[in-house]
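Sequence in, structure out. First:
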Amino acid sequence: QVQLVESGGGLVQAGGSLRLSCAASGRTFSDYAMGWFRQAPGKEREFVATITRTGGASYTDSVKGRFTASRDNAKNTVYLQINSLKSEDTAVYYCAVDRFYGGSDVRRWLYWGQGTQVTVSS
């Protein structure tokens, strides 16, 4: 099994920054693609970023230039650095892993963490 625990969320003013972490355990971390997703109030869960096994990252258009995803395989951890926060970034942020999939379709990711709340105030 693969277990994921997100942390680092909280309340921050618009324009501020946060770094989210996702710690993984259970299987060989480096063999998995990883992704970040978020779910805002009243909305469906949506793709934010994906990270390949080798560290290449892709982002949804609304976060490009502000969010940076990275991974540290030695620490079994992935990160999401969030800068220049906007009110529309308010959501529960989830990380996910999958052995065979690394795309943007939320339905195809196998393992999920419990999520961490990010709230942006003005």
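Second:
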Amino acid sequence: QVQLVESGGGSVQPGGSLRLSCTASGFPFDDYWMTWVRQTPGEGLEWRAGISMKADKMYYADIVKGRFAISRDNAKNMVFLEMNGLEVEDTARYFCLRPSTVSQAMGTTPPRQDEGYWGQGTQVTVSA
């Protein structure tokens, strides 16, 4: 049974940092691209970053480029999202996603909640 469990969210002030973690189980982790996707009531699902099986390819949404970094540790079946220079607009629930396609992992195709495997998410709140 595929399971994804996120952690590391919290409340921070603008300019602060957080490191999100996702622990995977139930599938050969290093055979899949992984992604981070966020959700807000107003904007819905928005892809933020994707990483290839061996971490030789990383892709980012323009809004987070230079501030966020995605990484993975295949020995631990984990994927991470390092978030720096957080802004109020980054406030959202962040999900770890095993995408259905490489296009979704790269951000070329938008995520769909009924595709792939999702964790429960972790809340990130940025406020002064």
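Remark: The chain has a mean pLDDT of 97.
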